[in-house]
């Protein structure tokens, strides 16, 4: 038997771009994503600070006298917590998210992966689209030999669109 093939991987360093787009704009449009209303926030997010998780509940399916409990997939729950580098710069992720938290307005986040961060958004590229309301700013305790950070929860208000193709 031949050895199994090893699939190619993609490196994440320098190859993510997270952009905030105002609600009401077409966040799949490269014209919007490359325009002045879209705010790139990738490098204002702390290492490991884009914490988008999905969990799925288990629906129990117990049967009379069956010695094994059966199960089915249940509802999916998604959460998004963003840890940012604390900053007073008005173009920083911290200030952008703080403004959104204060306004209570719904906002969109486009997470493009596996493409160089410096590359402009282009038609056909894939990205995840998350829509939600940003919660309060929660400053974190200082760490030795580290930078100040804050965490924001994003309360998702629409189903996430995974790996959507960007359009003109």
Describe the overall structure.
The protein has 168 residues and is mainly beta. 9% of the residues lie in helices and 44% in strands. Strands 1, 2, 3, 4, 5, 6, 7, 8 and 9 form a nine-stranded antiparallel sheet that branches. A hairpin with an 8-residue loop joins strand 3 (45-61) and strand 4 (70-85). The protein starts with 15 loop residues before the first strand and ends with a strand. The mean pLDDT is 97.
Report the biggest beta sheet as strand number plus sense, adding barrel if it closes: 9 strands, antiparallel
Which range does the strand content fall in?
35-45%
Distance between the termini: 48 Å
Mean pLDDT: 97
Shape: globular
Secondary-structure element pattern, one letter each: EHEEEHEEEEE
What is the helix content? under 10%
Radius of gyration: 19 Å
**Alpha plus pi helix count:** 2
Poorly predicted runs of 5 or more residues: none
Compute the number of strand runs. Answer: 9
Q: Strand pairing plus helix content: what structural class?
A: mainly beta
Short recap of the structure:
The protein is mainly beta and 168 residues long. It contains two helices and nine strands; from the N terminus they run E-H-E-E-E-H-E-E-E-E-E. The protein is globular.
Give structural attributes.
mainly beta; 168 residues; 9% helix; single chain
Q: How are the secondary structure elements laid out?
A:
Layout: E1 16-22, H1 30-33, E2 39-40, E3 45-61, E4 70-85, H2 93-103, E5 106-113, E6 126-134, E7 138-139, E8 149-156, E9 161-165
Antiparallel strand pairs: 1-2, 1-5, 3-4, 4-8, 5-6, 6-8, 6-9, 7-8
């Amino acid at each position: 038997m031949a050895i199994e093939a090893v699939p190619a991987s993609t490196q994440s360093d320098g190859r993510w771009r997270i952009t905030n787009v105002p609600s009401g704009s077409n966040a799949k449009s490269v014209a919007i994503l490359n325009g002045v209303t879209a705010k790139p926030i990738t490098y204002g997010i702390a290492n490991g600070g884009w914490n988008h998780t999905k969990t799925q509940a288990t629906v129990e399916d117990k049967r009379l006298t069956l010695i094994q409990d059966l199960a089915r997939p249940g509802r999916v729950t998604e959460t998004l917590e963003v840890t940012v580098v604390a900053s007073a710069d008005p173009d920083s992720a911290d200030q952008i998210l703080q403004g959104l938290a204060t306004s209570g307005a719904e906002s969109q986040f486009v997470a493009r992966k596996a493409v160089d961060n410096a590359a402009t958004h282009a038609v056909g590229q894939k990205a995840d689209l998350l829509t939600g309301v940003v919660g309060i700013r929660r400053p974190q305790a200082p760490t030795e030999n580290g930078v100040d950070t804050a965490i924001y929860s994003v309360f998702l208000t629409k189903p996430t669109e995974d790996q959507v193709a960007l359009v003109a």
